[in-house]
UniProtKB/TrEMBL annotation:
Signal peptide: none
Protein name from the UniProt record: Leucine rich repeat (LRR) protein
Region (Disordered): 316-347
Native source organism of the sequence: Kitasatospora phosalacinea
Biased composition (Basic and acidic residues): 321-347
SUPFAM superfamilies, per the entry: ARM repeat (SSF48371)
InterPro entries assigned: ARM-like, ARM-type_fold
Length: 527
């Protein structure tokens, strides 16, 4: 228990986390004295009848604790989306742990919050704040956005318009010709360039962040463009602007900074002359960016496919003419990057597919390609069939195996564990996957330098080492996991309840059983 906590808060948290705590135990935590346990309602699978009880609670914090649970059934998600408190409803569709769900939320739950049609007793957030949270916090998978574009409700079609340029061509055209004038106007604003006036620049470009935004997306007045070309720190932002005049593109393509040239190498207004110039650039990063340009000519594709840099050559060879922009985006996002966390943003238990996704047949063909980059692209498809998954799971390329583990719910347990060891930023998500291995882990994990890896061994009910060693581990999360391990036996678990450092973990040990948990609650709650 930490300083300032309520008495017995650690025991209450442990009891809430105990897999042996069924509805009869958990319902006793719903009283005001059980408040320290309420956040724990989002940290473990809960019995369905207990969830029903908790959602009937008048206490908002109880419902909010349950709302963050990534294992909830669809029916419970719908109840929470109709919660009379807006913060609870938002937590149900946009909470941090909800974003880790192995399966997407039901469409109806998300639609209820996006449409704002369900009456709320409280309005702690404005309508715009709610929409901003849902649209920007990695909640909405792109498959849902594609469905929004065809939804019978005009408001949902309007909300998808900011993403119109990434939608398939048929959906873009439909939104621009939508029968609803509000949808048409939103679509036209999204596809049309924003012409920035000098007055708007003076009033709105008051910070570096604001200038960075305008440099990327706006048609700039000549005097502003001249200043932008002189502001070297923001040249990469300017190089992304699709509305630049040809002379500005030429200037950026010849910039002394290879980082600026690399960004410019994807500019849609590159002429064949500039492409040839960049194909001969001494920096391989520039040539690599150019190798993925959707309008690259067949001659330049062939030239770059023979590039002395293997990464440049692979990117060019993987995407022959005629090029498909959707395929190119997938290849860009699976190309190796400096950061191990550089893969496409993950929304649920799998990496979200692009808005304009290539056909599954292309991914299937990529899975059998001799080119590692194409096999990496295949590994990002969550719809691969069983034979392709098995082939990629045994691939000699480590990145293929890691990408499959991060993207596909059918990835085998061994791949999930390997990805856990290598990809620190995805560990919480990987542990929520149903196939993640929890028992019979390699004994050597208990001696790993990383405490999060030792924690896996400490929680393994088949751990074949000395649990007392892990109970004395220098990191508290490892000690708590060891104290919660059912391999300890009921007597040892009961002994640890007297240890101030370990009793939270001991209270989570299923060896205690419901009778002992009820007795603990009698002591703690004074009932």
């Amino acid at each position: 228990m930490t300083e300032g906590e309520a008495p017995h808060a650690d025991l209450l948290r442990g009891i809430a986390a105990n897999p042996a705590a069924g509805t009869a135990v958990l319902r006793r935590l719903l009283v005001p004295a059980g408040r320290p346990a309420w956040p724990g309602f989002g940290l473990r699978p809960l019995p369905a009848d207990f969830v029903d009880l908790a959602l009937d609670s008048a206490e908002r914090r109880v419902r909010s604790g349950v709302a963050g649970n990534p294992w909830l059934a669809d029916a419970h998600c719908l109840r929470l989306a109709r919660d009379p408190v807006d913060l609870v409803a938002l937590q149900a569709v946009a909470g941090r742990r909800v974003r880790l769900r192995p399966r997407p939320l039901p469409d109806e739950a998300v639609e209820l919050v996006l449409l704002g049609t369900f009456p709320r007793e409280t309005e702690l957030l404005t309508r715009d704040e709610i929409l901003s949270e849902v649209h920007t916090m990695g909640v909405l998978p792109n498959a849902f956005r594609r469905r929004m574009a065809d939804h019978p409700e005009p408001e949902l079609r309007r909300q998808v318009c900011p993403y119109i340029n990434a939608l398939p061509p048929a959906q873009r055209a439909a939104l621009l010709a939508d029968p609803d004038p509000g949808v048409r106007a939103a679509a036209e604003r999204a596809v049309g360039p924003r012409h920035l006036t000098p007055q708007e620049w003076e009033e709105q470009a008051t910070s570096e962040r604001a200038r960075y935004y305008f440099y990327q997306v706006s048609v700039l007045p000549p005097e502003v463009l001249a200043d932008a070309l002189a502001e070297r720190d923001l040249l990469p932002a300017l190089a992304r602007n699709p509305h630049l005049p040809p002379e500005a593109v030429r200037t950026l393509a010849a910039d002394v900074d290879p980082g600026v040239r690399a960004v410019t190498a994807r500019h849609p207004l590159l002429t064949p002359e500039l492409m040839a110039q960049l194909a001969a650039d001494p920096d391989p990063g520039v040539r690599h960016r150019l190798a993925g340009h959707p309008a690259l000519t067949p001659d330049l594709i062939g030239l770059l496919a023979a590039d002395p840099d293997p990464v440049v050559a692979a990117r060019a060879a993987a995407d022959p003419a005629p090029r498909d922009p959707a395929r190119g985006r997938v290849l860009d996002e699976t190309t190796p990057r400096e950061s191990p966390h550089g893969y496409r943003r993950i929304d649920f238990g799998t990496v979200d597919e692009p808005l304009d996704a290539p056909a599954v047949e292309w991914y299937q063909a990529c899975a059998a390609s001799p080119l590692p980059l194409l096999r990496r692209a295949a590994a990002t498809c969550p719809h691969l069939d069983g034979p392709a998954v098995r082939r990629l799971a045994a691939d000699e390329d480590e990145q293929v195996r890691d990408l499959l583990a991060l993207h596909h719910l059918g990835a085998p347990p061994a791949l999930l564990l390997d990805a856990y060891l290598r990809h620190l930023g995805e560990r919480e998500r990987l542990r929520l996957r149903p196939a993640f291995p929890r028992a019979g882990l390699p004994v050597g994990l208990a001696r790993h330098a990383d405490h999060q890896v030792r924690e896996l061994a400490a929680a393994d009910p088949e751990f074949d080492g000395d649990p007392e060693v892990l109970l004395a581990d220098p990191h508290r999360t490892v000690r708590l996991a060891a104290a919660a391990n059912p391999r300890l036996g009921p007597e040892r678990a009961a002994e640890l309840l007297a240890d101030p450092d370990l009793r939270e973990g001991a209270a989570a040990n299923p060896q205690l059983g419901e009778e002992r948990l009820h007795a603990l609650l009698d002591e703690v709650l004074g009932e």
